[in-house]
Specification:
It is built from ten helices and 15 strands. With 333 residues, the chain is of the alpha/beta class. The N and C termini lie far apart (44 Å). The protein binds threonylcarbamoyladenylate and magnesium ion.
Length: 333
């Protein structure tokens, strides 16, 4: 199959809508990462998404809708705090989990009685969702466990010849996946951290929890149980207070391979005599660059050595979560 990469012109959007109506998968730009979209009402189309990604079938999908789409037929009620958050943060990088009415394909939620809904703010995503005129399931458009895509080229690298169309909206400005928020209880609870932070949600509605999985428990957001976002090269990871050990690790690798550091700007400045990828100086910059640099790292480095940034709060909570998963050092509490 030929994979077209097109800007979202009227004719490209018409083509995208035709593919979706035919049960095909179409990749599209969002403000977080690129998504791999299909008709949420169609069992076949939804199963195709799992097959294309090699995604475990117990990891549910997010349904994407445009800003004027009425979600009330899909969800079974909305607590007042969720209505407040929806008005405050959508369209934007916040996914809200509601009780489901079971109207979309049963494969979307993988046996959960909830439905995750997202209204992306990217103009390309909005135009695509309007043209398709259907709720669209869309996981990140990467092969399962690989690094999420933040350019159309990244999507093409994973799915060339396997999907008919990538709607190219340019680089993703957010860079990490949306915040996933459980809105089925008395107060909102974050299942996956992202650019809409706990502090921002608590400021809007008074309180916000963070879900911490207990050992042996079935995860509320099953995707969080898997190793994720991994570059296809050897990796090592050090906290910022262990730069000496990190340099020793670099020196050892240098004998046979080509090590690179991945670290924030101020640490790059300290390590300026070594190969290093610069994550940036602010949390937003680090979110935006992380996945591109992980993909660049797997191409150039035999060993990628991550140095944990110093800042841990706010947007950095989401960045650190992705970084630790990519480097295989995430431990559930
Ligand atoms: O930014 C994003 O959210 C991107 C773009 C494409 O929109 N999409 C994305 O999808 O990251 P995916 O499939 O890679 O991650 C979806 C996450 C997983 O952790 C999944 O377990 C969780 O959302 N999820 C989906 N439905 C859920 C539900 N009903 N209850 C709890 N968690 C859910
Ligand atoms: Mg993903």
């Amino acid at each position: 199959m030929e994979t077209k990469i097109l800007r979202p012109s009227p004719s490209a959007l018409r083509l995208a809508a035709e593919y979706i109506a035919d049960g095909e998968a179409v990749a599209f730009h969002t403000e977080t990462v690129y998504g791999l979209g299909a008709n949420a009402f169609s069992d076949e189309a939804v199963l195709k998404i799992f097959a294309l990604k090699g995604r475990p079938t117990d990891n549910p999908l997010i349904v994407h809708v445009h800003a004027d789409y009425d979600i009330s037929p899909l969800i079974d009620g909305e607590p007042p705090y969720a209505a407040t958050l929806r008005k405050r943060f959508l369209p934007g990088p916040l996914t809200m989990v509601y009780p489901s009415k079971g109207k979309v394909s049963r494969y979307v939620s993988c046996g959960l009685d909830t439905l995750a809904i997202r209204v992306p703010s990217s103009p390309t995503a909005q135009a695509f969702l309007k043209a398709a005129a259907l709720p669209i399931v869309a996981p990140s458009a990467n092969l399962s466990k690989h690094v999420s895509p933040v350019t159309a080229r990244h999507v093409d690298d994973d799915f060339h010849g396997k999907i008919p169309l990538i709607l190219d909206g340019g680089d993703c400005s957010g860079g990490i996946e949306s915040t996933v928020l459980d809105c089925t209880g008395e107060k909102p609870v974050i299942l996956r951290e992202g650019l809409v932070t706990r502090e921002m949600i608590a400021a809007a509605v008074g309180d916000c929890g963070i879900y911490a999985m207990k050992k042996g428990e079935r995860p509320k957001s099953p995707g969080m149980a898997y190793k994720h976002y991994s570059p296809r090269c050897k990796t090592a990871y050090f906290t910022g207070d262990r730069l000496g050990d990190a340099v020793a690790c670099y020196r050892e690798e240098e004998k046979e391979g080509s090590p690179y550091f991945l670290c924030e700007s101020k640490v790059c400045a300290v390590l300026k005599e070594y190969n290093a990828f610069d994550l940036g100086g602010t949390p937003e910059e680090m979110a935006r660059r992380l996945y591109s640099l992980l993909r660049k790292g797997e191409q150039k480095a035999s060993l990628l050595i991550g140095i944990e940034p110093y800042e841990k709060e706010g947007v950095m909570a989401g960045v650190l979560n992705r970084m630790k998963r990519a480097f295989g050092v995430y431990h559930e509490t």
